[in-house]
Design a protein that fits this description.
mainly alpha, 5 helices
């Protein structure tokens, strides 16, 4: 049963990642990977919110399934590498620093918000 929850969450998370990435990138005329940045920060916030307020089944569905398919370390790494190789080293550094700071901040915010429930 647990794998079905993960599968269901991933079936929502993967298309949501793709659609969000495309929508965000279409609004920004920049080489910076705003779409990947957005889905990763949103996933961090969601995982933070799940902390302490969700059942084990909700963690499988939303944490492992949805957030696992929504967020993407591999694309973040690839896009950062491509920025660096293209000579956009400042963008590459900003992507690393910004993703780390925003991701940790989003998790913290989610955890703090979950304490209100």
């Amino acid at each position: 049963m647990n794998w079905l929850l993960v599968l269901a969450g991933a079936a929502i998370g993967a298309p949501l990642r793709y659609l969000t990435d495309r929508a965000v990138q279409a609004r920004h005329d920049s080489v910076f990977p705003w779409g990947t940045f957005t889905v990763n920060v949103a996933g961090c916030l969601t995982l933070g919110l799940l902390t302490g307020v969700a059942s084990a089944q909700a963690h499988l569905l939303l944490g492992t399934g949805l957030c696992g398919a929504l967020t993407t370390y591999s694309t973040f790494s690839y896009e950062t590498s491509k920025l660096y190789e293209a000579g956009a080293r400042a963008y590459a550094a900003a992507n690393v620093a910004g993703s780390l700071a925003a991701g940790l901040g989003a998790v913290w915010l989610g955890v703090e918000a979950s304490r209100l429930f």
